[in-house]
Amino acid sequence: MKTQSKLYFYITLSTILLALIAVWSLGTGVYDFGGKSAFEVLGKVITGDSTVSLSDKYVVWDVRAARIVMAILIGSMLSVSGTSLQGLFRNPLATGDLIGLTAGATLMAAITIVLGGYFKDYLPEAVQFSLVGISAFIGSLLAMLLVYRISTTGGKTNVVMMLLSGVAISAIGFSIVGFLIYISKDDQLRDLTFWNMGSLAGATWTKNAILTTVLLFSFSILLPKGKALNAMMLGERDAQHLGINVERLKKQIVIIVSLMVGTCVAFSGTIGFVGLIVPYILRLIFKSNYGFIMPLSSVFGSILLLTADTLSRSIVEPSELPIGILTAMMGAPIFIAILMKFKKSI
Amino acid sequence: MKKFIVAASMLIAVYSCKKEDTKSTENNTEAKAEAPKTNHKIVTLNGGITEIVAALGHEKEIVATDVTSTYPEGLKTSAENLGHVRSITIEPIMAVSPTLILASDKDINPDLMGKIKSSGIKTETFKQEYSVEGTKKLIADVAKAIGNNDYQKLNDKIDSDLAQVQTLTKKPKVLFIYARGNMMMVSGRNTPMAALIGIAGGENAVNDFEDFKPLTPEAVVKANPDILFLFSSGLESSGGIEGVLKAPGVAQTNAGKNKKVIAMDGGLISGFGPRLGEAAVSLNKLLIENAK
User: Which of A111, A132, A186, B290 shows the greatest Cβ crowding within 10 Å of its Cβ?
Assistant: First the structure.
């Protein structure tokens, strides 16, 4: 019970930190509310005050608030998907990237960006705008199915086979992306690069609603898996003896992770490092207790991504840096610092 | 000291004359724009469109532009530069509180377009066609969008400029090279450069593909251009004429053997706005000089 109350303490603490960062983020931006602060405006928007000008309302609600919520949702999902995969594979490098999900999503998105011009006009307008997102999602699911088919024989999944086929699928995916980059036009090339480094600039409340649904569904299944993942650390056979249905666990985690990664990539492009760094840091601090680091990673992922996004839109005003550059820049030094600190205990 | 005072007073004199000039043109446009009252805060996201808006006398109303809007010079100080059109986001646009956004339909990415639509700001997108007729139509369309129908003079100017373009007895084959340092791309069909080369009396050297492709030595030798054509900035970045002549394959072409390399301002070549005629005449002159 003691560890349980410790967990609540850390969760509360980190949630407060996240809230503070959200407040900072809401006040950050190039738009000027004419003397008022962003919070006053937001308060008025929430209470339905009609004195707020349409553009003030639009910026505070549909631009900034929507973007903050999206950063929180995506950061959380990427981080939890990394934690689950690392627990399942007992490998600190396992992320959506490694088992080929990101490559699949990237490939389909690149195909749409470069070749979309040929079939876009035949689709309804509602689909046209989100076409890249939808194909990224399909790409991630297809990659997962393929990896699963290759690595499963007689209902049993071989984890090493899974990682290796992920590597192979990534190689195929990125080589085709390379070809697409070669034949793409100037503006498509810019879209590709931009998309490859991720951005939350396209945040809307509709997207947030979809992300929230996926998040609630996924977390309700993954977060209670802490104990099972702890058992997995002993090895598959021992976990089996402890009464864990290992095959079912593998299936659930892989399917739900590809659902989460596909949805995130679809809305924000590829944002690296979150799924790798957050669980790694948490494991170093709290040891490998998945009952502990799984829920914590859901909050810390949000903290990392929201901080990165706020910086990305304030460093080079009025333009912005692709967020993937920042997550890598922030993630890597933290990673090294912690490695140095825990050098002896590793 | 005396010299300094003389110089300073001359400078002041020149400066105040300049000011007078701009004032008088302002008065003119104000007088002309009386009928349809226009007082927009415009964001233009395309170099050609920016030039049209400015040429119609609405330069003061432009509050922000994209990176390709390099002309008129005054915009550098009077309007915010939002960067490259593919990476612009909505908040910096909202920050200048525009009442009208003008863009070419090819430029804006779908995410931004969705955001602009839901922000409720009036937005007009235009089809830009790289031809004389297309430019005139664009001028008419933009004029209509900003409520100033006094655009005929711009189209007439294009016509009168184009009348100065001389026919070349033998059309030179011109290869446009888009160079940024060591990376070099050449322009095929349906590029502003190919169109301008045609209007100025030359022949685009490569026509077997659309848009831009990386320059390969074999392709250059096969195209065998008489003249190489670059942006001034591109020529500089690739080490001047000598640098370009050293690019693989170039030395084997007619242009390389005779050292025929020409360069013009990028905005002027690719804008396809009110200065189209001017651009064509300048290029035409350069082609004639280099045909000898």
Answer: A132
